[in-house]
Amino acid sequence: MIEPIFKIDNVSKSFSGHVVLKDISLDIMPGEIIGLIGASGSGKTTFLNTLIGFIRPDSGDVTFRINHLLTYKNTSIYRSVYEKQQIVKTVYGFASQVPSFYEELTTKENLSYFGSLHNLSKDAIKSNTETLLSLMNLQYATNIQAKNLSGGMKRRLDIACSLMHDPEVLILDEPTADLDPINRKDIWSLIKKINDKGTTIILSSHHLNELENLCDRVAILKDNELIAIDSPNKLKEQYVTEQEIVFESSPGRYEEIMKSVPKKSFNYVKEKTDGLHVYSKNVEAVLLDILESIKENKETLNSIKLIKASLDDVFINILRTK
Fold first, then answer.
1. What's the CATH fold of domain 240-320?
2. 6-237 — its CATH code?
3. What pairing do the DSSP bridges indicate for beta strands 268-272 and 243-250?
4. Which of 47, 212, 274, 297 is 20 to 30 A (C-alpha) from 119?
5. What are phi and psi of 51, to 5 degrees?
6. How far apart are CA 163 and CA 29, in angstroms?
7. What are the tens digits of pLDDT across the range 110-121?
8. Cα–Cα distance between 291 and 146 in angstroms, integer?
9. Within this chain, domains 6-237 and 240-320 share the same CATH topology
10. If pLDDT is split at 50, 70 and 90, which confidence band does 318 have?
11. Beta-bridge partner residues of 117
């Protein structure tokens, strides 16, 4: 039986009477990529800082798994992150929104320094530095001062510093914030590569659609509570029932075409520059009716596509619900 690396049990936190986290419970499983999404101020950063023990909750606890050679009945031992800070720091690596490296040090010097903070031997520091420079594609920036790196390279260096001690878990707070689309794509590819090596990854992000093909599970915070957690596909099935068909035909007598489609089978339609958009909960049946009607009306079908629901749609629907 696979056991969690972290267990979050009924964690609540308030600042000056303002509730930031309320009764959050969640297990972090080994090897997964779990995304954390929520509107600004929903408590994402507070949650991550609570997870690593940097912020102590008002109630509840976060425990982490300690692997011992000797266990009772093969059951792992869990300890509170707030009571065993020195040990839990060996389990995770954390890259916050604000980079932690030193601008005046070179790429290599930063990695060596962070390795020394974890009391790594000189051989381990050298070996881990070489590995991370290659993994992060920073081998050509070894002797460049961090302040002179590009935005994408700085982000990769920050992640590399958090991995110097080879942690089981990597925690990233908005890893692609302020990056252009190309650099964001590079960072997501890098995160997947790190995960493929066995590292569990917990991250927060505002780029929801980019999490769909990356995360095994997505946790959604709303009004300081954990509203939902599941795979992206299951979240879409649960929170988005309506899908969209877009078709364009010539000469484009859309009103005539839709007269043959049962009104009860679709919710509404909207004509745009790229054709007619049809919104329905039963897209398969509507799609067949539309194709048949196009044929009957002697229209020429130029294009047709089904737009599937996205995590953005899930998030918007959740925000709309009270």
1. Alpha-Beta Plaits (3.30.70)
2. 3.40.50.300
3. unpaired
4. 47
5. -60, -40
6. 19
7. 999 999 999 999
8. 58
9. no
10. confident
11. none
